[in-house]
Amino acid sequence: MKIKILYFAWMRERIGKSSEKIETEASTIDELVKELRLKDQRYDFAFSDLSSVRVALDQTLVSFDTSLTDVSEIAFFPPMTGG
Amino acid sequence: MAVLIQEEDFDLSDELKLLKAGKGDAGAIISFIGTVRGDKSLRALELEHYPNMTLSSLEEIQDKAISRWKLIDVRIIHRFGYLSLGEQIMMVAVASQHRREAFEAADYIMDFLKSRAPFWKKEHSDTGSTWVDANPEDEKSLARW
Question: Looking at domain B2-129, which CATH architecture does it have?
Fold first, then answer.
């Protein structure tokens, strides 16, 4: 399955890119994160503390155990600080 | 009803005119403006957002507030980009029949906007640039609703 991944704020800075398209067999977000962390140190560092990472599937906030079926866009970012 | 995500500044009195236009049944108007607070050596604030998600998340917050308090109208503006000290960051304006709903709804919208709308602040100061950490109190505030 091909997924578009977006990164924002310090996730973007730590990984060094704002978006990428990847091919994955991961069935949940947790599995995808494991795959990404193995790619290289930048990913491993960015995802080292998941309590400070939020995730959205197709622009909706979800938890890391959510399934990845029929997803086209996934975004990783720190807790929001609007207002 | 309107949610605007923009780089440019806004004028509160113009926004309130739009909010009130044609709504003679509104007996209460509440507006809140968040500005760039000048503390320590802060020079500017940079606001990043997730364009595909920002509008839908704010509209969802707005719609929930409207149905919960039977509001007459709501306008939300949130800016992004580089903002200097004292500049306006965002605005929430609520019109309702009576004041209680308007105060509560504005408070509700602000609580959810702070922790659920995809915006991130970076502070630029004389000593460097750092991302603002989310305040755990903001997340706890959501339990009030």
Answer: Alpha-Beta Complex (3.90)
CATH superfamily of A2-77: Beta-grasp domain (3.10.20.30)
Cβ(B114)–Cβ(A81) below 8 Å: yes
Optimal mutation site among A14, A57, A58, A59, interface B, most CBs of chain B within 10 A: A59
One pLDDT digit (tens) per residue for chain B, 145 residues: 999 999 999 999 999 999 999 888 999 999 999 999 987 789 999 999 999 999 999 999 999 999 999 999 999 999 999 999 999 999 999 999 999 999 999 999 999 999 999 999 999 998 899 999 999 999 899 999 9
The alpha carbons of chain A give a radius of gyration, in whole angstroms, of 12
Cβ contacts of A60 on chain B, cutoff 8 Å? 53
Q: Min CA distance, B80 vs chain A (Å)?
A: 10
